[in-house]
Structures are given as structure tokens and as C-alpha cells.
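Practice problem 4.
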């Protein structure tokens, strides 16, 4: 009986370790929302990460590049102080950070080719 229990526990431990090893590694902040765009890349929005002070946008999601910060993506992020934007981002859409009054630190990568209307409106701490 003890040998069977030990064998079952060992098999379960192996299954869990294989599952964890095969799962994609999360490189960004948990809770962000991702949307597949027509060009096959992803756009990102705050999602459940909206109340964090620091957010890291990953370069990839599901093996595809994250290229846009979507319309009003962090509009509902009143506590956001620091945002890390990866080099894969090329577009920062309209009103992305509007009313992010706590935002103090942001670096915009050289690959960003478009910053849309009122993207930083109301970011008084920048």
C-alpha cells in the first residue's frame, strides 16, 4: 500500500513538473489583457493589472510580438507610476495614459513610430 501511494505521488510530481516546464514563461505583468490584431500581432491593455504601481509589458504573448498599446489601455490605472515598454511596441494609441496622474517614469523605445492623440493627457507627474 505504501509503495503504491509513493508511486502515485511520484507520477503526479513528474506530471506537474512536465506541465510547468512546457508552459510558456510569463515575462510581463500578470493580469494584462491581450487582443489579437489583424496583422497577427497583439495589442495590450491594463486588464486586471490596472491598480498596480509598476507594470511591465512583455515583448511577446503566445509566441507573437506585442506591437500596440491599445486605445485608452491604461486610462483606468490611477496608481501607475512606472511602465516598462518593450522594443516590440510600435504604436501608442489615443488616450492610452490619459488621467494617469501618478505616472512618473516611462521610456519610449526607438521603434515607436506613432504616438496618437492625447496619449499622455493629464499625466502631470511626468
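Answer key:
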Amino acid at each position: 500500500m505504501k509503495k503504491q501511494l509513493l508511486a502515485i505521488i511520484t507520477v503526479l510530481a513528474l506530471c506537474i513538473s512536465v506541465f510547468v516546464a512546457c508552459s510558456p514563461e510569463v515575462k510581463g505583468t500578470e493580469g494584462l489583457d491581450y487582443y489579437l490584431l489583424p496583422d497577427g500581432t497583439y495589442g495590450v491593455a491594463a486588464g486586471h493589472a490596472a491598480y498596480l504601481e509598476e507594470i511591465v509589458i512583455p515583448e511577446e504573448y503566445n509566441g507573437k510580438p506585442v506591437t500596440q498599446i491599445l486605445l485608452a489601455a491604461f486610462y483606468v490605472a490611477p496608481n501607475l507610476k512606472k511602465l516598462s515598454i518593450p522594443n516590440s511596441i510600435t504604436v501608442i494609441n489615443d488616450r492610452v495614459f490619459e488621467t494617469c496622474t501618478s505616472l512618473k517614469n516611462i521610456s519610449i523605445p526607438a521603434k515607436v513610430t506613432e504616438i496618437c492623440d492625447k496619449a499622455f493627457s493629464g499625466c502631470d507627474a511626468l
